[in-house]
Amino acid sequence: FGDTSAYRMGFHNLPSSLSGLSGYFTENSKGQGFTVFSVIIKAIIGNRDILYFSIIAAICLICVFYVYKKYSCNFILAIFLFVASGDYIQWTYNGIRQFLAVSLIFACTGFLLKKKYVPVIVVILLASTIHVSALIMLPIVFIVQGKTFNKRTILFLFAMLMAIAFIDQF
To answer: What is the pLDDT of residues 54-73, one digit of tens each?
Structure first.
């Protein structure tokens, strides 16, 4: 459902080894990090697309569950809410590239809380090779620091509201 068929077809069209990537990149320039990752998986597992989807879903869910386990006051309730929401189905099988990028960044929550910005920025840049929307997290890293609703956060929220109000200009 959703984009799964497009991801399945894309997986089958991938080269089976890293040596075939250069020719593939001349035709497809979107998500090169995801492409390299997918080719590595395909080189290991062959043309088995269900196993491919399962590996990606497992990586995403391990990242999410790791953060829930470490930072949730009630891990079981957090997992229940995650599963009961049903969003994981869409995230892990429709927005595969986006969710992989998001879950990798989400796994860096500990670095962000400890104010270790360099590892977070490196992961964000790596995730942006999977899906370019990950770059939106770069300014967020610095905006979320400090007390809740500080001047910087309010200024950012105001800027975002203005950007939404004048979306045609942006």
So the answer is: 999 899 999 999 999 999 99
Q: What is the pLDDT of residues 124-144, one digit of tens each?
A: 999 999 999 899 888 888 777
Please check whether residue 53 is in contact with residue 4, taking contact to mean a CB–CB distance below 8 angstroms: yes
Under DSSP, is residue 15 helix (H, G, I), strand (E, B) or coil?
coil
Phi and psi (nearest 5°) for 64? -65, -45
DSSP string, 104-154: HHHTTHHHHHTT-HHHHHHHHHHHHTT-GGGGGHHHHHHHT-SSTT-HHHH
Alpha-carbon distances of 40 from 14, 20, 48, 91, 98, rounded to whole Å = 10, 11, 13, 22, 19
